[in-house]
Write a structure and sequence with these properties.
Helix content: 40-55%
Strand content: 15-25%
CATH architecture of the largest domain: 3-Layer(aba) Sandwich
Bound molecules: glutamic acid
CATH class of the largest domain: Alpha Beta
Strand order of the largest sheet: 9-8-7-6-10-11-12
Number of domains: 2
Shape: globular
CATH topology of the largest domain: Rossmann fold
Length: about 425
């Protein structure tokens, strides 16, 4: 298991980041009161029948943080450490994330506290269907649209789509994104988050007058986001020298053979044991001398106790909330260039938006069309954040939060407060 120190809770971090952005924007108190807190929080009980016949009670959540700019949008996470506060934090970040890339969605997140690695497909299906049924009054293509997150995938979305559609009596593919292609999924959605991370790294390298080609990279987390980011960087000529997952870390100073590592992970579920590499400790990866560090696992990976050990020149946050505010300050003083999460990993929700648009219009776009649109959205968002960073002389994270919070505040100003 990864040994990550949890410095405080993710929701406190989300609120602290909001306050900093609201202060920098000199946002009036009334607007803050409206946009800061989740609009709806639902906690559900999920009795799941295990394969041996026992019923196991699990807890699930769905939080809609904001519907100011459009239907609430965000993934569903299955993980043993899911808590209501974590889901509230992730939902809050979704609101600012959708605003940063300027797509017409609000923010939401769901989660179930469970251990998916120790559940069978049948158990996961029963869990997903019961959870869907429990949150059914909240979700819908015009209300709140779930998607994959940690340990959920296209199959999970297919079960949600089926449960929702069966209950309503007709097929409603637009209720979720990240579906299998044959059920109305979009080309390019599976790799969208990693592809978006890659585009923002390209923009950052351009800005810093560096080359992606020849850069050295360390990637923490080798799930969907970490592995795709590593693959695209590898294809672009970067040298990915260290990779970790929850089972271990592997290192090769000459560059890891990423396609081979992805193949091994697909066979064994681990990066551990990769032949052309030496095993290293998790903390060594975070402190690795390299050009680009990509934390793509969970929250709080870089905290006050290990931030000073970071020797990367750039950090691209593939994960949501991987750096605590205290660690942010340390990294900022060290001059590390940060591509903050709500910008860096927004490619996933951006292609989710494309999927939803295709569903609503019964269209099917080509892959090149999706990639081109995604690249434009990500690079425009990067430019917008960088502009604020330069003009206001604020750190990149604060600039991204100012852009996101500012756009939501403007929407509130125009909509007004009901009643
Ligand atoms: N779970 C992803 C995220 O954190 C994607 C959400 C979505 O596509 O709605 O951004």
């Amino acid at each position: 298991m990864l040994t990550m120190k949890i410095n405080g809770n993710a929701y406190d971090v989300a609120l602290e980041n909001f306050d900093a952005a609201a202060d920098a924007l000199q946002l009036d108190q009334n607007t803050r009161e409206v946009i800061k807190y989740p609009e709806r929080v639902l906690m559900v009980s999920i009795p799941v029948r295990r394969d041996d016949g026992r019923i196991h009670h699990l807890e699930g959540f769905r939080v809609q943080h904001s519907s100011v700019r459009g239907p609430a949008k965000g993934g569903i996470r299955y993980h043993p450490r899911v808590t209501l506060d974590e889901v509230k934090a992730l939902a809050t970040w979704m609101t600012w994330k959708c605003a940063v890339v300027n797509i017409p969605f609000g923010g939401a997140k769901g989660g179930v506290t469970c251990d998916p690695k120790h559940m069978s497909q049948g158990e996961l299906e029963r869990l997903t269907r019961r959870y869907t049924s429990a949150i059914l009054p909240l979700i819908g293509p015009d209300q709140d649209i779930p998607a994959p997150d940690v340990y959920t995938n296209a199959q999970t979305m297919a079960w949600i789509m089926d449960t929702y559609s069966t209950t309503k009596g007709y097929p409603i593919p637009g209720v979720v994104t990240g579906k299998p292609i044959c059920l109305g999924g979009s080309l390019g959605r599976t790799e969208a988050t990693g592809r978006g991370v890659f585009y923002t790294i390209q923009s950052a390298c351009e800005h810093l007058h560096r080359n992606v080609k020849g850069s050295t990279v360390a990637v923490q987390g080798f799930g969907n986001v970490g592995s795709i980011t590593a693959q695209l960087l590898h294809e672009a000529g970067a040298k990915v020298i260290a990779v970790s997952d929850s089972t271990g870390c592997v290192y090769n100073p000459h560059g890891l053979d990423i396609p081979a590592l992805i193949h091994l992970k697909s066979l064994t579920g681990k990066v551990d044991g990769f032949p052309e590499a030496e095993p290293i400790q998790h903390e060594e990866l975070l402190g690795m001398e390299c050009d680009i560090l990509v934390p793509a696992a969970l929250e709080n990976a870089i905290h006050s106790d290990n931030a000073a050990t970071v020797r990367a020149r750039m950090i691209a946050e593939g994960a949501n909330g991987p750096i605590t505010p205290a660690a942010d300050r340390v990294l900022e003083s060290m001059g590390v260039f940060l591509i903050p999460d709500i910008l860096c990993n927004a490619g996933g929700v951006t292609v989710s938006y494309f999927e939803w648009v295709q569903n609503e219009q019964h269209l099917f776009w080509e892959a090149q069309d999706i990639y081109g649109r995604l690249e434009r959205v990500m690079k425009t968002a990067f430019r917008d954040v960088l502009k604020l960073h330069g003009e206001r002389n604020v750190p990149m994270r604060l600039a991204a939060n100012m852009l996101g919070v500012g756009r939501v505040a403007e929407a509130v100003r125009l909509r007004g407060i009901y009643p």
